[in-house]
Each structure stands twice: as C-alpha cells, then as structure tokens.
Amino acid sequence: MNKNFTRLFIKKTAIICALLSLTACASGPRSVSASLPLVTSSMEKPDKKMVPEQYWPILADAHQSRLPHKQYQITLGAIYPSALGLTCRELVFHDNHQLINKRIACENHFLNKNNKADKGWFLEKEIIESSHYVEM
Asked: Which of these, 66, 77, 104, 129, could form a disulfide with 124 (CB 3.0-4.6 Å)?
C-alpha cells in the first residue's frame, strides 16, 4: 500500500509541475509604456539649408515627380516618413542629363518670426561626402 501511495504521489506531483510550467509559458508579455520620449522635439527653426518657399507645395505633393529649376533638372523621389517622423523625399540633381548629386529634403515644423507654428522644407546634411558608390 505504501508503494502505491508513493507512485500516486509522484504521478500527481509530476502532473502538477507540468501544468505549472505550461501556465507560466502561456502568460502574455507585460505591457510597457514609455514615460520619456526618445527624441525631444524642438520648435526652433532647423540649422539647415532651407529650400526656397516657392518649392514647398511641389515637395509636399506626392503626385509631383519633377521640380522646375533654372539651372538643374530635379527629379523627386517618393514621399516617405523618416526615422524621426518627418516627411521626406529624395531630390536627384541632373545637369545636361548627367547626375550631379542626390540630396534629401524633409519637412520640419518650427516657430516662425511671429512665434506661430509653421513648417517648411529643409535640405538634410549629407552623410556621404563622396558621390561615388561602390558596388560589389
């Protein structure tokens, strides 16, 4: 009788341990919310080269693919959101059908001279100093 009791006790203990370990794995992940933003937003005018205001409506229009300019033929890439949440697009500059440079322009929000919220397009600083790309 002692032998049967021991076997029964071991089986029940094994079943309880298995159920406990399965329920521990079945619980959902804990809910996390950020109390501090990763990037602080600034309403100061960006310290970047501003695109002339006459081009802002064209840059903001997703249907536009070219930007009229006296000196260059400028092709516009698709509008996309940047990692900082800005609206951006690529500008490809050609001179006599020869690629000169590629730049990124992004729409930044800032406070204007009258201390009112405004937005405008600015050229982002170049990350790559060379215009030559290496392909493997």
From this structure: 104
**Taking a C-beta distance cutoff of 8 angstroms, is the pair 118, 97 a contact?**
no
Instruction: Give the domain ranges of the chain.
Output: 49-123
Q: How many Å apart are CA 88 and CA 126, to the nearest integer? A: 14
Instruction: Map residue 4 onto helix, strand or coil.
Output: helix
- Output the pLDDT for position 20: 66
Q: Give every CB contact of residue 122 below 8 A, 6+ residues apart in sequence.
A: 46, 48, 49, 50, 51, 105, 106, 107, 108
pLDDT digits (tens, 9 = 90+) for 11-40: 778 777 676 666 655 566 777 766 655 554
Say if residues 68 and 57 touch (Cβ distance below 8 Å): no
Instruction: Find tokens 């521990």 and name the residue.
Output: 24
DSSP letter, residue 114: T
- Are 55 and 72 contacting, i.e. CB atoms less than 8 angstroms apart? no
Grouping H, G, I as helix, E, B as strand and the rest as coil, residue 60 is helix
Q: Which amino acid is at 52?
A: P
